[in-house]
Amino acid sequence: MLLGRRKRKRQQLKKPVRKIPKIFVCPHCSKESLRIVIRPKQGEDKAIAEASCGECGFCARFYVPNIFEPVNAYGKVIDLYDSFEGDIEKEIASNKCIGELDGSRIEKEEEDEGAEEDEG
């Protein structure tokens, strides 16, 4: 019998903290290559979110509240994709985005705004 020994404290295992993803699974091609960028609009309580796939060219643009993170916007991308009526392949081939803000991608739009400022 062992007398006079101290009890050892059990080492508690730390649970690893999961990080919020920066790249998501594309709803169109099912590859992990969907990047979501959120750009706040000055003076407003909403922002523009753009999700674009680097693999298949899928693109979605829509408004989100300023407090949204990319992971929150991803849920809205999935909803937009599932509820889209029309030919998604045609939209991707013509390099257009689906969603509340139909049309060309944000990068092209920013170039146009810069040209208008130079003229005015």
Show the helix and strand layout:
Layout lengths: L22 E3 L6 E9 L5 E8 L5 E7 L4 H14 L4 H6 L12 H14 L1
Antiparallel strand pairs: 1-2, 2-3, 3-4
Q: Can you offer a commentary on this structure?
A:
The structure is a single chain. The chain has 120 residues and is α+β, with helices and mostly antiparallel strands. The chain has one domain. It is 28% helix and 22% strand. Strands 1-2-3-4 form a four-stranded antiparallel sheet, covered by helices on one side. The C terminus is likely disordered.
> Cα-atom Rg, whole angstroms?
23 Å
- Assign a percent range to the helix content: 25-40%
What oligomeric arrangement do these chains adopt? single chain
> What is the N-to-C order of secondary-structure elements (H for helix, E for strand)?
EEEEHHH
Structural class: alpha+beta
Distance between the termini: 93 Å
Proportion of residues in β-strands: 15-25%
Can you give the mean pLDDT? 81
How would you write the strand order of the largest sheet? 1-2-3-4
Largest sheet: 4 strands, antiparallel
Low-confidence stretches: 105-120
Counting structural domains, the number is: 1
Protein name: 50S ribosomal protein L44e
Pfam families: Zn_ribbon_Elf1
GO molecular function, one term: translation elongation factor activity
Keywords: Elongation factor, Protein biosynthesis, Ribonucleoprotein, Ribosomal protein, Zinc
